Structure formats: structure tokens, C-alpha cells
Amino acid sequence: xxxxxxxxxxxxxxxxxxxxxxxxxxxxxxxxxxxxxxxxxxxxxxxxxxxxxxxxxxxxxxxxxxxxxxxxxxxxxxxxxxxxxxxxxxxxxxxxxxxxxxxxxxxxxxxxxxxxxxxxxxxxxxxxxxxxxxxxxxxxxxxxxxxxxxxxxxxxxxxxxxxxxxxxxxxxxxxxxxxxxxxxxxxxxxxxxxxxxxxxxxxxxxxxxxxxxxxxxxxxxxxxxxxxx
Length: 229
What we know:
The protein is of the alpha+beta class and 229 residues long. 41% of the residues lie in helices and 16% in strands.
């Protein structure tokens, strides 16, 4: 379960013992909103801010690792071509119309999936509660992690102002938004595979937001048992 620092901080900001709590994230990229909607909401960030080491690693990967891979691949390809010519054989098989058709269908399916307007993140209406919450999600904190806490009459969402935090030791998070039980409810099922469990924050106006990457397995199990019961 959540360590003492997290529990004490939760009790302090809630004013009572939480029924359940869990660290979680929006586990898929936030889809691009219409420009006018984004502008009206203050043009806030739609991605988390990554640590500088991640950018340094990306630079090393693209300017060192990728060229090495390409050079190795090119060398192998040249060896295959030279070997094929020395044997007097063909280096590959021609593509049949069936192959081309199957490849086209595969690309079409991948393209359709990539263009799904909400990517399973929320219901799709930016003007409802879930959409408006998404537009401000990373304005609350540069970290993608949020602590969802349940009480007898509220659902509270808290965030830490830090970019990087330890879910077991964080003690500086604060409530960024909360809802009464007639405004929102949690929809989730107990017994989901650890590491893949999700739940939805569903609102009275019919909108919903899906959360995943649930932190601390014991907290996640208890949270999902509580909301499914």
C-alpha cells in the first residue's frame, strides 16, 4: 500500500482518511484538439515535459546509433547482392498482385487506427467536462502522474509540481480538481491484469476520461475493488 508520506499527505489535504487512492496517468497521447478550442482554453501543454536526460539519449540514438545500424544494414545488403551475382541467381522474388493488395490493406488498417480522433483517451467532445479537463491536464503539473483519491462523497485528483516524483515517497502533491459523487463516478473492474489495468472517470454530462499505468499494485488492486464493489 501507499507509504506513510503519501498517506499522511492525502489525509492532510482531504481532511479525512481516503477510501482508496492510486497514482495513474493518461496512458495514451492526448489527441490534438481543434485550434479554436485549444486557444480558448489558454493553449496549454498537451504533453508531459521530459527530463533532459531523455533528450540527450534521443540525440545520441539518432546521431550515433541510427547511422551505425544503417551502415551495418547497407553492408549486409551489398554482401547479398554481390553473393547473388556470383551465383548467377536472382536476389529476390517479385511481388505478386496478391502481395501488393495485402500490403495495401495492412497500411490502410494502420492508417485508420492512427487517425482515430480520440485514441480511446476520452469521449471526443472537447466542450464537455472530460475534454476541458484534458486541455488543462499538463497545466496542473509537468509530470504525467496524478493521484486519484476517493472519499465518501468526493473524487479528488492531485498532482505534484515536480517533473519527476516517486509515487511511494511524494509528499508535496496538492488537489488540482475535485468532483462530488453526483458530478462524477469511477468505472473500473477488479481483477484486471497488473500493468494493464485501466479505469474511467465518468462525468454526469456523459463525457469520460480513461486512466492507466496504475502505480503500486496493491493500491491499484484495492482501488479497483473499491470502485467495482
